[in-house]
Design a protein that fits this description.
By secondary structure, the chain is α+β, with helices and mostly antiparallel strands. The longest helix has 9 residues.
């Protein structure tokens, strides 16, 4: 089998700025990234859109997939059967968000 990669980038404001609109007590990129992948929350309230990262996490955890997500200098790695959501800092800061999804081609 061969791996396939999907890469998505959004050069806008990033997760923290977006989520602070509806959850002003968020203080860090790491906290915002962890909230984005564990809570059903949208930075576009009252619209019912933009709240899908928790559901993306569920798909990744239950499928043979790997996900790398970066916003600012915070990163999160998810993989099949990896339940824990724990973001960390990296040395390089980016504007917006960057996502890489890896899956096996059948």
């Amino acid at each position: 089998m061969r791996s396939k990669v999907v890469v998505l980038a959004d050069r806008e404001q990033g997760i923290l700025t977006t989520l602070k609109r509806v959850k002003p007590k968020l203080n860090s990129l790491i906290e915002a990234l962890e909230v984005a992948f564990t809570e059903t929350l949208s930075g576009r309230q009252p619209e019912a859109c933009g709240n899908g990262l928790k559901f993306v996490r569920e798909v990744i955890v239950n499928s043979p997939l790997e996900l790398f997500f970066q916003t600012g200098d915070a990163v999160l790695n998810l993989a099949q059967n990896k339940i824990e959501v724990s973001a960390s800092r990296v040395g390089k800061t980016i504007k917006g968000c960057f996502t890489k999804i890896v899956f096996e081609r059948v």
